[in-house]
DNA sequence: AAACGACCCTGAAAGC
DNA sequence: TGCTTTCAGGGTCGTT
């Protein structure tokens, strides 16, 4: 569920929750996530000075004086902030107890997410170090994509979803940005002009920024903040994702879907060549 | 080096 | 209604 915008929104919530307070306890209720949650290591965060909370790709990094916590929401993860005594939800696996009597809970039904402690600089950690560029920080995203794509013949949709190339573009925003730039998702990434990549780069940035503004897309997932269910509204802005059989918003043709490299993909060939 | 499929897991939705 | 099947927003790993 969570792609870059959803993770960014989550990161901001976490940042405000941890501001002017500190973590006084850690509670691992289920350590079976993507990698075993190592409680002993994670307890390093207790009473530690939190220097910075930031996002790298779809990872949330909480960097402390003595190391860093690396969080990922996988396909179904969310983070909620609650009062200390509030009831657990099913699948609340990792809990941080705050000095201000609040708690931060990582909930993840499918358990594809992770909570990993590292003593290294987080940028050096193996989950982080080979990640590609941040699309929103890159001025010349299109030029970069063009250069990186020359030797690759996989479908352009897979190419932009490759987190070693560019981070944060998941299945929804890949389909959306390709529609917006008029590029057929099946087209080989090495056979697209620089000019078209410039357009694609701009549309990737635009769609991600707009989604962040609107609080993310949210299909089935949701997150909680102070007991209030937070929903993103970007779904209303989707041109193609999840709309197969419905009308194209540009030309009134019917949106198609097709599996590309194992992932469902949505597009309308007449508007995407 | 790059591309592909299998796999990790639960639950919502669709199918019967 | 209720049981079964299919599918889901991600990423890693092993194999071609």
Task: Give the SSE layout.
Layout: H1 4-18, E1 23-28, H2 39-42, E2 50-56, E3 59-64, E4 67-72, E5 78-83, E6 92-98, E7 102-107, E8 114-118, H3 126-129, H4 141-149, H5 156-161, H6 171-180, H7 194-213, E9 223-225, E10 228-230, E11 256-260, E12 263-267
Antiparallel strand pairs: 1-6, 2-3, 3-4, 4-8, 5-7, 6-7, 9-10, 11-12
Helix pairs in contact: 1-7, 4-7, 6-7
This protein binds a DNA duplex (16 and 16 nucleotides) through helix 6.
Any guess at the CATH architecture of the largest domain?
A: Orthogonal Bundle
Secondary-structure-derived class: alpha+beta
The number of helices is 7
What is the end-to-end distance? 28 Å
Let me know the number of strands: 12
Inertia-based shape: globular
Portion of residues in beta strands equals: 15-25%
Q: Report helical residue fraction.
A: 10-25%
